[in-house]
Design goal:
The chain has 324 residues and is of the alpha+beta class. The chain is 25% helix and 27% strand. The strands form five sheets. Strands 1, 3, 5, 6, 7 and 8 form a six-stranded antiparallel beta sheet that branches. A four-stranded antiparallel beta sheet has the order 12-15-9-16, covered by helices on one side. α6 runs antiparallel to α7 and α6 crosses α8. The chain is globular and about 55 Å long. The relative contact order is 0.19.
Length: 324
Amino acid sequence: MLQNFRFARYRLTYTVQEPLRMPYYKGNVFRSRFGYLLRDITCIGGAAQCKTQCQFPDRCVYSKCFETPVPDDSPMLRGQPFAPHPFILEPPRTRKLDYAPGDTFTCNITLIGDAINLLPWVVFTFREIGKRSLGIRGKRGQCHLNTIEALPAQGSQDIPTIYTAETELLTDDGLILGLDNVLKGVPQIANAIELEFLTPTSIKIDGKWTSRLTFEHLTRNLLRRIRFLSYFHCGEDLDVDAQAVIDAAKAVKHVSDLRWIRTDRYSYRAEKSVPMGGFIGKVRFTGTLEPFLPFIYLGEYLHIGHHTAFGFGQYCIGRDPKVN
């Protein structure tokens, strides 16, 4: 299962050079600047030709990151223009709003499948994000990208540095991870597990946003996300009986303490504020969990739900799954 699935995680450390102000939820700022500057840096024809007259649609870096097309003969997501983004942002989770020169902060990014090959473009873009200023409109400031580290799977202490500002050289692609790396942390037996949702998590049930998460809904969303990412970005379908797994998930019980928060963002394309939000908090599941653990542990890296490119849907697993 998922023999070809691969991903890589990176931690970017910045030093603030000019006073700036960040919003409470900082993923909106990083996602907005990443998309705008990646297109600006890589697009040859300019935004006016991007949609209709692109000369290199199959090689477009921006398209591969933000507008991965769904082939006409695709067995999934038919009728949808784009596949899920092959990257995940993890912005600083601090409440700090105002930054002074000399302050530091980090931002993580995960690249999935073929997007790992785009790492040089990603590094250059995030370096430019700092140079061209970061923050909310009217209160932006320049930042200096100091280092990029390759993050390992959970439990490993080996964190190599693959980029420094002194050399401005990217030494390699970092640590390429797969399902085998994830499974090393999965217990063989567990009948209770707790998840803490660290960033807003947007999940729809019957077409409506919800802050009520059952194990069935968790499993359904994990399977769908893993399958789409694997198929469109790693060239491999998820070989499981999804309906059987979902049916089994209905027997798992849950106790949750979740609340909804809003993190509206400003859309420069639409020139207006766009409402966004999701639930955060903890939920505990009890039951026969072993068949689901590989998906839950992989989801810790891949996030869940909508707006993962903004950092939404990040959760962590209590590192002591119980056997009662």
